[in-house]
Task: structure prediction
Amino acid sequence: MVIAIDGPAGAGKSSVARSVAERLGFTYLDSGAMYRTVALAALEQGVEPAALADAIRIELGDRVRLEGRDVTREIRSPRLSEAASRAAADPLVRAAMVAHQRRLLSEGDWVAEGRDIGTVVAPQAELKVFLTADPASRARRRARELGIDARQVLAEQALRDQRDATRAHSPLQPASDAVLIDTTSLTLDQVVDRIIGLVAE
Ligand code: CDP
Result:
């Protein structure tokens, strides 16, 4: 079974997806971590992300590894958020990442989180959730996580939202059969309970 959780930055996808996976005993897939890791490898090697998207070895789990090296922390920086969003606009990069994600999701029970899980990666998912929240509270959450200024996060987030939503390939948008949840005034537990309820239905 696949549960798809999509939405913009800071809507709570990661915490919600992790928590739903834990409660159900499913495996958690962070597709954004793949784009971040490809972007990191490309920056380090001074090449375009598409040049290595097919060839690099990314391992996901409790830690994220690039060719065996632990990059879990490094890929969370604002610099890598920006680089990942640029890399993700390239159709060659997307094709490589989507193929990898589909291979993983083909067996077992998953909670997969990203931008295009319900629309492209796993349109057959049994449950699709699209999380949103107002931009200011998304920026506040992210600023708290990173310990940086919320105004700076808001400006960078607006740029990234705009790029993710308007790119030609797999733009960020809810699947037609996704359940929309606005998390602005909900706690993590309320969102998780809601999704567990939907799974039960
Ligand atoms: O955690 P946050 O939402 O800030 O970012 P993320 O999920 O780690 O994704 C980083 C970037 O990768 C996003 O801005 C998207 O451009 C891209 N991405 C994507 O295009 N498709 C996905 N399934 C996941 C991420």
